[in-house]
Amino acid sequence: MGQKSVSVGHAPNVTITAVHGNLQVKGWDREEVLLRSTSSDADVLDTQDNNVQISCEGDCIVRLPHDAIIYTDTVHGNARFILLEGELRIDRVFGSLEARNITSARIGNVSGNLVAKQVTEELYVEQVQGSAIARDIQGACTLKQVGGNLDLRDAENDIQASAGGNVRVRLCLLVGQSYSIRAGGNLSCIVPQDASLGVDLTSEARRIQIKQPDSKTTLAEQKHHLAMGEEEITMSLMSGGTILFACQEADWAEMDDIQEELDEAFTEFSEQFGQQIADQVEQQIEAQMEILNEQLSRLESMVGQAGLSEAKAEQVMQRARQASEKATERAQERMRRAQEKLDRKLQAAQRKAEIKIKAAERRNQPSKRSSWRFDISTPPAPPAAPAAAEAATEEERLLILHMLEQKRITIQEAEDLLAALETK
Questions:
Q1: Cβ(200)–Cβ(236) under 8 Å?
Q2: pLDDT band with cut points at 50, 70 and 90 for residue 299
Q3: Model confidence at 267, in pLDDT bands (50, 70, 90)?
Q4: 304 vs 7, which has greater pLDDT?
Q5: What is the DSSP string of 236-284?
Q6: CATH classification of the domain holding 191
């Protein structure tokens, strides 16, 4: 296997013009681009002004800085991109494509299948001729045309997706404003039951199933509108076959007990953790400066003992000081980028926490569109009913509803208890 490498600076522009075999691109912490390939010396790895050109006649592995900006023209085999923080653009992959732990990607045409996971910003794909799997997409997700099946899970922001086969969607957190999903075959979609959605369902086969926690509805209709909460978000689901739309409780039960304290606690944590990181950065830079100063002192002593002229000795020391300053600047830049990345992750986590708090509050508020209802209006009081007894009955009603909300009793048990109170 042949190997070539070049040194680069911060956020190099890397252009991969053509790979005639399989391609794997992986980020690392070094300011260096490394090319390993199975082909001959015809491979190209050139650099000029922090612009890198790569081409390969066979299979190849490319290691480059995490923050590299990457443009890939054509890959004739399969392609894999992982651990990348810079912008990623891919025009054409004749095989299958996997993109994992990246910041963002704009992809043209994939002849095989697509797997995209852990994308912190936008994912935009023009065409996938095979099937596609997309999971944990935090930014907007656009899959304009998927020829086969689509499995879309935990995409948080706006979605625009279309597939010729079956589509399966599961969303645990909705932070976008518009969700549009089309399937040539069947379509199943699961959302949190506390989502505030206006859903337009269109089934060319006139088969629509709606599952809610306490009910199941089957409609022989082509179109149906479903209102959930205040309909703050719009969702359009279109299918050539059956549509199965289900809402279920998100796994946020633990949020109910701490929702009032969470925002304040998270803010305090962010400030403390951010200060901790800043302190660590400062300590690391100070330690590096001590090491560099010690090395410079030793070098100065060695230059003095070498018997060099004063001008030559000063020239050597000047170059050493410049090298030391450059190393310090690189360390500071790496620390700065690491802290920026941490800040982005903290902001995203806080945003998720705020949305979960809002959803928990919405669950605890009475809604006109509640999936289940109890008529707990107070019946006419008996003429001689004591005020203390009436107060106790009202308190008991609230206790029963509270137990039901916490799922400590079933709906039937709650109805029985309420009926018993009315009888009493």
A1: yes
A2: low
A3: very low
A4: 7
A5: EEEESS-EEEEEE--S-TTHHHHHHHHHHHHHHHHHHHHHHHHHHHHHH
A6: 2.160.20
Q: Count Cβ atoms below 10 Å from residue 249 Cβ, excluding itself.
A: 12
DSSP notation for 96-149: -EEEEEEEEEEEEEESS-EEEEEESS-EEEEEESS-EEEEEE-S-EEEEEESS-
Q: Which of 330, 349, 364 is the last residue of a domain?
A: 364
Total domains present in the chain:
3
Average the pLDDT over each of 108-112, 294-298, 390-394, 395-399 and give the range with the smallest value: 390-394
Are both 184 and 333 inside the same structural domain? no
pTM: 0.62
Q: Are residues 129 and 224 in the same domain?
A: yes
Instruction: Give me the domain span that covers residue 217.
Output: 2-248
Same domain, 205 and 334: no
Let me know whether 297 and 241 are in one domain: no
- Please tell me the distance from the alpha carbon of residue 263 to that of residue 246, in angstroms, as a whole number: 30
Task: Tell me the per-residue pLDDT of 191-239, one tens digit each, with 9 for 90 and over.
Answer: 988 888 899 999 999 999 998 888 888 899 999 999 988 888 999 999 9
Give the HSE-up count for residue 421: Cα atoms under 13 Å, Cβ half-sphere: 24
String of DSSP letters for 346-390: HHHHHHHHHHHHHHHHHHHS--TT-SS----PPPPPPTT--HHHH
